[in-house]
Design goal:
single chain, 457 residues, alpha/beta, Aspartate Aminotransferase, domain 1, Aspartate Aminotransferase, domain 2, 2 domains, five-stranded mixed beta sheet, three-stranded antiparallel beta sheet, 15 helices, 16 strands, 13% strand, globular
Length: 457
């Protein structure tokens, strides 16, 4: 059959609140034109993030009843440990309340002044945790990755020639670990090929540098490999995921993505000394090593989610439903980063609003207009998130791309919800010349996109 249906039935529903444009105008003004500041009840379709917004399965909810809340040695921890070891092969599991906590622990140990951490593209919290440690976060994306209209199977790859050049310029002693993000979130959720993972690992290991995956969306990446990389069509996604992890020495993981849970994460690795140091930090910052800031029922649901996310009927539906949104927006002429990624559609806000310069944040302007039009909450990934202003000279360095991310929560919205999103974006696109820029009136020193306040120009 051509129609790909949701591989589940809906057992529980949650009502949505409808608002008028005049109400949304007042709400947006009160929020300082920052969609992070809007009360969730005032959002109709929430595409701000796919992190922690999944609908859990009946099996996960049932498992939560069985969660063991013991402070030490929880049965639920050991079930998660067994599942992570089975999936990744890593010997040590350090649970955390979410992925950025795992990043914080890791870079507290390996980061520091003068260190360089390469990646295909660091996401915002990864970059922030590296920079807070005093290290430098370096993105190594191939040229095709910066071209929104280029169609390539694996635009999320690391530029391996640039990686070799970085090593030659700075020396391996300044690079404590190599990171590779799968899928490449900041680069429109584009996948990374198995060949690229393997070769990046080989280069790292040749220079005695540990190789880590940012594995938040490992299952989606594995499914793209099955679809697009020669030789993997007849191999199960579970086996492909296992091969991905086999090349790495460890990983950070936000279970709020491909763990299919609302809270949870972990750091997993093979190095015993690094694991010992990580657990020492964990006890101070997150909790005892067998719960790491999570309730027993969270650990239980996490273990089940890591199993369910590798079901191929689910992944087929997941990837196809995101592609559906991208295809229909493209038919309307909306400039969308091509090809559609795994967890989100990224609108090219720079091309959508070419009359708004980067200094006036076209992505933020577009995100605000989508909310005003239809109560849709999205996320700017452009010069608000990644642009920088020199505090001494006032020179502005924009992001390489100005994008708006429409992140699709897992197992939450139906086709009719997505059709509504398509209609709203089409309406905004027809009126795009009426949209003006925006300026920042208040911002924090780091991760400003979360709490900054804006004013329209």
């Amino acid at each position: 059959m051509k129609t790909i249906i949701e591989p589940f039935r809906i057992k529980s529903v949650e009502p949505l609140r409808f608002t008028s444009r005049s109400e949304r105008t007042q709400i947006l003004q009160a929020a300082g034109y920052n969609l992070f500041n809007i009360h969730a009840d005032d959002v109709l379709i929430d595409l701000l993030t796919d992190s922690g917004t999944s609908a859990m399965s009946a099996r996960q909810w049932g498992g939560m009843i069985e969660g063991d809340e013991s402070y030490a040695g929880s049965r639920s921890y050991h079930q998660l440990e067994e599942k992570v070891t089975e999936l990744t092969g890593f010997r040590h599991l350090i649970p955390t309340h979410q992925g950025r906590a795992a990043e914080k622990i890791l870079f507290n140990i390996v980061g520091g002044q003068g260190k360089i951490i390469p990646n295909n593209t660091h996401f915002d919290t990864t970059r922030a945790n590296i920079e807070v440690s005093g290290a430098e976060a370096v993105d190594l994306l191939p040229p095709a990755g910066f071209d929104p209209v280029a169609v390539d199977a694996f635009k999320g790859n690391m530029d391996l020639e640039a990686f070799e050049a970085l090593l030659s310029k700075h020396g391996a002693e300044r690079i404590p670990i190599t990171m590779l993000t799968v899928t490449n979130n900041s680069n429109a959720g584009q996948p990374v090929s198995m060949e690229n993972i393997r070769r990046a690992a080989e280069i790292s290991h040749r220079h005695n540098i540990p190789f880590f995956l940012d594995a938040c969306r490992f299952a989606e990446n594995a499914y793209f490999i099955k679809l697009r990389e020669p030789g993997y069509q007849k191999i199960t996604v579970r086996e492909i995921a296992a091969e991905m992890f086999s090349y790495a020495d460890g990983c950070t993981m936000s279970g709020k993505k491909d763990g299919l849970v609302n809270m949870g994460g972990f750091l997993a690795l093979n190095d015993e000394e690094l694991a010992r140091q990580a657990r020492n930090i964990l006890v101070v910052t997150e909790g005892f090593p067998t719960y790491g800031g999570l309730a027993g029922h969270d650990l239980q649901a996490f273990a089940i989610g890591l199993d369910e996310v590798l079901e191929e009927d689910y992944l087929k539906y997941r990837i196809r439903s995101v592609t559906y949104l991208g295809e229909h927006l493209t038919e309307l002429g909306v400039p969308v980063f091509q090809p559609p990624g795994g967890h989100a559609i990224y609108i090219d806000a720079g091309a959508f609003l070419p009359h708004i310069p980067a200094r006036q944040f076209p992505g933020q302007s577009l995100a605000c207009e989508l909310y005003l039009c239809g109560g849709i909450r999205s996320c700017e990934i452009g010069s608000v998130m990644f642009g920088k202003t020199d505090p001494t000279t006032g020179d502005f360095a924009p992001a390489r791309l100005e994008m708006v991310r429409l992140a699709i929560p897992r197992r939450v919205y139906t086709k009719s919800h997505i059709d509504y999103v398509i209609e709203c974006i089409g309406d905004v696109y027809r009126r795009r010349n009426e949209i003006s820029g925006i300026r920042i009136v208040q911002e924090p020193p780091i991760l400003r996109h979360f709490t900054a306040r804006f004013s329209p120009l």
